[in-house]
Amino acid sequence: QVQLVESGGGLVQAGGSLRLSCAASGRTSSPYGMGWFRQAPGNEREFVAAISWPGTSTYYADSVKGRFTISRDNRKNTAYLQMNTLKPEDTAVYYCAAKYGWAWWARSGDYDYWGQGTQVTVSS
Q1: How far is CA 55 from the centre of its chain?
Q2: Model confidence over 17-62: pLDDT tens digits?
Q3: Which residues pair with 106 in a beta bridge?
Q4: Phi then psi for 35, rounded to 5 degrees?
Q5: Is 21 exposed, middle or buried (0-12, 13-18, 19+ CB in 10 A)?
Q6: Mean pLDDT value across residues 73-80
Q7: What's the mean per-residue pLDDT of the chain?
């Protein structure tokens, strides 16, 4: 199993930047893809970005393409989500997820392991 812990959320003004981290522990020696999702109050959880193992392929939701960058450092068992040019509509709880395998996945139901989430609030 993989345990995931997110960090890096906070309050930022529109146009600002934040970098989220997702630290993985447990059985991290096997290949695993990772994804970031977010959920705003009253909304369903939505896909943000995903990255394959070992990090050669990435995929983004249209709403964040060109502003967010997903990456991973496998030596540190950590994935990152660099968020630039933030907008108020990016406000949500951000979750990271993992699934054993070499690919990336864009559906929440595809992932087996989830972190507890970190709040991102963008003020206008």
Answers
A1: 13
A2: 999 999 999 999 999 999 999 999 999 999 999 999 999 999 999 9
A3: none
A4: -140, 160
A5: middle
A6: 97
A7: 97
Residue 66 burial (10 A CB sphere; 0-12, 13-18, 19+): exposed
List helix spans (H) across 42-87: none
User: Token pair of 102, please?
Assistant: 């070499």
Of the candidates 26, 17, 36, 55, the one whose C-alpha atom is nearest the C-alpha of residue 117 is 36
Give me the half-sphere count of Cα atoms (radius 13 Å) on the Cβ side of residue 88: 2
CB 82 within 8 A of CB 90: no
% of residues, the chain, pLDDT over 90: 99
What's the burial of 110, exposed, middle or buried (CB within 10 Å: 0-12/13-18/19+)? middle
Q: Which residues pair with 61 in a beta bridge?
A: none
With beta carbons less than 8 A apart as the criterion, state whether 9 and 18 touch: yes
